[in-house]
Amino acid sequence: MDVKKFLVTGVVLGALALAGASTAWAAPTNKTFVVDATGSGVAGGMGMKTSGYAKGTVKVNAVSDTVCYRIYDRGLGVVEAAHIHAGKKGVDGGVVVTLNVKMFNRTKPACVKVTSVVAKSLLRFPAFYYFNVHTRAFPSGAVRAQL
Fold first, then answer.
1. Per-residue pLDDT tens digits for 28-44
2. Counted domains in the chain
3. Which residues pair with 60 in a beta bridge?
4. Does residue 22 sit within a domain?
5. Residue 99 contacts residue 53 (beta carbons within 8 Å)
6. Which residues of 122-133 are buried (b: 16+ CB within 10 A; e: fewer)?
7. Which residues are within 8 A (CB) of 40 and not within 5 positions of it... i.e. 6 or more apart?
């Protein structure tokens, strides 16, 4: 991980952890985000230039500390990995949640456990996180969408 991504991720998660320590957490306990990831969303214009996409839903639940997702991808080639990263629009950041790409293109959602801090942070500050799909041709990210 390069230093800039490490610092961005550390600052975001550190600030969110401090915010989470307050007793008056104003975030909802769960929310479903609709993601429509395209190459134009990748920071620095480095994503796919074709019509490939990944669309679906990402549901964050702070009661069960889970992230459940149902993602469909088309035209991306060989999908190697998918994550939720910390980072504002146009800014790359470190991985916060790893998603299992073998669970893409299915009718039932897949779920992954996360820490309480991550679940609450995703709910309270979704604009500081993005969904990113990595492919063999675009290992740094083929398509991206902010939560």
1. 899 999 999 999 888 87
2. 1
3. 31, 67
4. no
5. no
6. bbbbbebbbbbb
7. 47
> Residue 93: inside a domain, yes or no?
yes
Q: What is the pTM of this model?
A: 0.81
CA distance 144 to 92: 10
* 89: three-class secondary structure by DSSP: coil
Q: Are strands 79-86 and 30-38 parallel, antiparallel or unpaired?
A: unpaired
Query: Hunting for tokens 């920071």 — which residue is that?
Result: 43
Does residue 19 fall inside a structural domain?
no
Q: Tokens 């600052």 map to which residue?
A: 11
The amino acid occupying position 86 is A
Rounded distance, CA 38 to CA 143, Å? 4
In order of 23, 31, 73, the CA distances from 81 in angstroms are 36, 23, 12
CA torsion through residues 37, 40, 43, 46, sign: positive
Domain span at residue 100? 3-14+30-146
Count the residues in the chain.
147
Q: Tell me the pLDDT tens digit for each residue of 62-103.
A: 999 999 999 999 999 999 999 999 999 999 999 999 999 999
